[in-house]
Design brief:
Blueprint: E1 2-6, H1 11-22, E2 26-30, H2 44-48, E3 53-56, H3 65-86, E4 90-96, H4 105-119, E5 124-129, H5 136-142, E6 144-145, E7 148-151, E8 155-156, H6 161-173, E9 179-184, E10 189-190, H7 191-201, E11 207-210, E12 233-234, H8 239-246
Parallel strand pairs: 1-2, 1-3, 3-4, 4-5, 5-9, 7-11, 9-12
Antiparallel strand pairs: 6-7, 8-10
Helix pairs in contact: 1-6, 3-4
């Protein structure tokens, strides 16, 4: 089976490509550097010729509200039109848990992307994931106020990139659902507890406090804003195991 992975050289893309190639599939790891660009349309027709599945893992280079919206709308339209022309049988897109329950520019852009997919006519499955463990350091930095990290008092359930890639590959090889699948890490705890455990493990002395006034990427969140509300596929790698694997030489 020929599978095209848009964003195939990124964090999730490279892991997904490796899994699918190990399964014997013909996988194209697409990126602008390889001459396949969903914004300009360059190389799309050639890359998608004969493809059965397309996995969209592309991400905006800018998180500024207007830029990220333009990216996902332009990329989505170009890619889905090329898929329809090529007769692609399954479009798989990676999205984020609770994007329709949290108000920030990036999440609004992902909602717009999902709407394009649903209206495209191409059979699809959307995978909504919780935040990646690989992003914990960046989340802490974005919430830092000097030597204090202020986080809203909400639940958090991060997932390891290895588990995300395994789920993406599994969904891509299954029949399209024409619906959303949610995935999350195996542990659910308070936001401040998880970030505090991460910072302690990496030797970061900053204090983590729970602050009801704190924002998450510029938006307000409620207790269950960042976790699945219903059934979700759970990963296998917990925070402690991920930290152990992430240490140099592990």
């Amino acid at each position: 089976m020929k599978i095209v992975v848009i964003g195939g050289t990124g964090l999730i893309g490279s892991k997904t490509v490796a899994i699918l190639r190990q399964g014997g599939h013909d996988v194209v790891a697409a990126s602008p550097k390889s001459g396949i660009n969903t914004i300009t349309g360059e190389g799309l027709r050639e890359a998608l010729a004969g493809a059965t599945v397309v996995i969209d893992l592309a991400n905006s280079p800018s998180f500024e509200d207007k830029s990220v919206m333009e990216f996902f709308q332009t990329s989505g339209r170009n890619l889905l039109a090329a898929e329809a022309a090529a007769g692609v049988r399954h479009h798989v897109a990676l999205s984020i848990v609770a994007i329709d329950r949290t108000d920030n520019g990036y999440f609004r852009a992902k909602v717009a992307q999902e709407k394009l997919i649903e209206a495209s006519g191409v059979p699809y499955t959307i995978i909504r994931a919780t935040q990646f463990m690989e992003f914990l350091g960046g989340i802490a930095d974005s919430s830092a106020d000097g030597n204090t990290v202020r986080l809203p008092p909400v639940l958090f359930q991060p997932i390891a990139a290895d588990d995300v890639a395994a789920n993406v590959a599994d969904v891509a090889l299954a029949a399209p659902r024409n619906s959303i699948v949610e995935i999350a890490g195996p542990e659910r705890a308070s936001f401040n507890e998880i970030i505090a455990r991460y910072l302690k493990a990496v030797g970061d002395p900053r204090e983590v406090v729970s602050d009801p006034k704190a924002l998450y990427w510029g938006g307000r969140v409620e207790e269950h804003s960042l976790v699945p509300l219903g059934e979700a596929r759970l990963g296998h790698v917990g925070l402690d195991e991920w930290l152990r694997r992430s240490r140099p030489g592990a």
